Amino acid sequence: MIRSMTGYGRAEAQTASGRFTVEMRSVNHRFGEVLVRLPRDLAPLEDRVRAVVQTRVLRGRVEVTVIREDRATRTKTVRADVDLATAYAQALKELAGVLRVREGMTLAQVAALPDVIRVEETKEDLDTLWPQLAAALEEATTDLVEMREAEGRRLAEDLETRLLHVEELARGVEARSRGAVGEFVTRLRERIAALLGEVPVDENRLAAEVAIFAERSDVSEEVTRLRSHVAQFRQDLRDAEGAVGRRLEFVLQEMGREVNTTGAKANDLEITRAVISMKGELESMREQIQNVE
After folding, report:
1. Which end of the chain has the least Cβ crowding within 10 Å, N or C?
2. Where are the domains positioned within the chain?
3. Segment among 44-58, 109-123, 138-152, 252-266 with least mean pLDDT
4. Counting beta carbons within 10 angstroms of the beta carbon of residue 98, is it exposed (0 to 12), middle (13 to 18) or buried (19 or more)?
5. CATH number of the domain at 7-73+125-148, please?
6. What's the pTM?
7. Euclidean distance between the first and final Cα of the chain, in Å?
8. Of the ranges 1-5, 79-83, 181-185, which one carries the lowest mean pLDDT score?
9. What is the DSSP string of 46-97?
10. CA 109, 110, 114 angle in degrees (round to 5)?
């Protein structure tokens, strides 16, 4: 069954580093694109996050957002940059010699100089965090895919209804085209009689005109190909696996080609009306297919 490209998924993960919320939103897109937004300290995990989504979502634009809801307390370390402090002391000593002033720096004053003392947080252990975050990503992705599948079922029902209408109209066109030749002969005889009165009709010339009309207005080949495309579309719709949206777009395009040719050949008002109705159905189907994975 086909899947829509529109969906939403959400999951949470409680870890030693805090609670995370994973949200996914997807919309239609010609190709597959995954945009990932992570807290800055989780940026190295971007490729892993994208890979999890791409294994389940083949087409569409997916926005993945990972939000840290609360932050666990991290161990902090105070570090002294001895080399920097030594360089400060040497520079101050040289400055005192140049200015001819007494040296009087205390330890507290040296420690107060920029970057001599730094407070550092322990870095996130991403390898430890990843399994829990990956589980939340899988859950959110499953939620997203289920919503896309549910929307896909609704799309398939609508497309199937429109296919049935196109088939019904095609049968009407085929039946009407067979009777159109007979009506053309009747109208042609009436016109000739109105123009020539009692003058005998040249049956050979009349037969030639009828043959030309029948050849030009014959839409049996177009209707046959249209039926074949409809059958292919229905099969792809029912047996869809993975991304079939572009394949359905191609088959729909071929259906439109046959309908247009039928309209160009038609020399009958009822056939023309049926062609207009088929074009309307195909246009509605085209809009629906734009959202199929």
Report:
1. N
2. 7-73+125-148, 76-121, 152-289
3. 109-123
4. exposed
5. 3.30.230.10
6. 0.70
7. 11
8. 181-185
9. HHHHHHHHHTT--SEEEEEEEEEEEE----EEEEE-HHHHHHHHHHHHHHHH
10. 100
